[in-house]
Amino acid sequence: MIESRGMSAVTELDLPTLDYVDPEWRGEAFHARLEELRERGWLARAEPVGFFVLDRESASFFLRTPDATFPGTTMLEVQGVSSGPLYERLKGNLLDLDGDEHRRLRRLVQPAFTPPAADRHRSKMRAVLAELLEPVLAGDGRCELVAAVARPYPARMIAAIMGAPASDAERLGRWANLIQGQFDPVRVASELEVLERAAREFQDYAAELLARRREDPGEDLISELIAAEAEGDRLSESECVDLISAVLVGGVDTTQAQLAHAVALFARHPEQWALLRERPELAASAVEEVLRLEPITPFTARLTRTEVEHRDVRFPANTLLFCCAASANRDPNAYERPAEFAIAAERGREKVLTFGAGPHFCLGANLARAELQEALLYLAERVERVELDGEPKLESPLGIYGIASLPVRLVAAP
Fold first, then answer.
1. CATH code for 8-412?
2. Which of 26, 30, 256, 275 is in the most buried spot, having the most CB atoms within 10 Å?
3. Of 41, 49, 40, whose CA–CA distance to 19 is shortest?
4. Domain boundaries in the chain?
């Protein structure tokens, strides 16, 4: 419990500690522990590096405040990684930039990710879904959903948006899954060589793709970046490659993980699946409910630039904070019956924090929402029941909280 009289330094508070590297910390045990901590207060210790921010009000504050920034390279430095391809890739990434430079680069790539831009890809989404799902439905409906659908679907979409050959989608997805491990301290400690090799391979691939598009431009994101350069906004080669890398890594495994969680939730709540089939106009609110209840980015880091005061607590400069969407999205002060999965529930005006907030709000949020909506709509049209065909294998909630395997049976509609 946070107890303070007047202003107290966060380092002086008597706070519970969360063992975030506990291998059992996932699934219902993960949510139960977060709920227990949030009931005790809005802060917990993340030994030895920083603090968890647990309720919606404070998580939103630290995500939005200009006095804190995303600690991209700092997260690697505290783990002893201060050079190499993984570090260099993150150093030039949008996530690690701020101010005018961040606004400039984000402005160049933003037009490809507006709601109208995402809507232009919906027919392609349905075509990809048909290619992936119809062979499953033509059989007995049994599949491992991550390998069969959730992983290849966003990889094929991001390849099309970038202007990469469709045949490269599989390795683009593999690179994205590996590179996102940069935000998981356990993977950085145990798989650094593998992660760095993936970062190096993708940077080389992106440079090659950029060169091909300079010679043969098309209607794709890379060609648009080249056009922006020609119109006077001088992008360096490394800036182009960094932007392409940010789009790939942010646009594949996040959607992959969120779609897998969506199907798992509906398999455990058949009445909600029946409701979606009866009322497909609920697809958008169903996606928001999935994003709220099972966010695949449970923790978004912030590093204070200067001393910050919030709710009678003083946070010194360079305090590392983990804003917890997994508990903020279930905060009873923001949502009624917050632990309930109900796609038609009126959740009010409070936006989920799954995509973050503030200047570093997820660039690909509109595309991800469109991809998830089309996936649920396609499944609702073609699948009468979604059943678990074994226990899902959950990954760690550190970094991207994905599902490694999801055996299901999709019972085709008559």
1. 1.10.630.10
2. 256
3. 49
4. 8-412
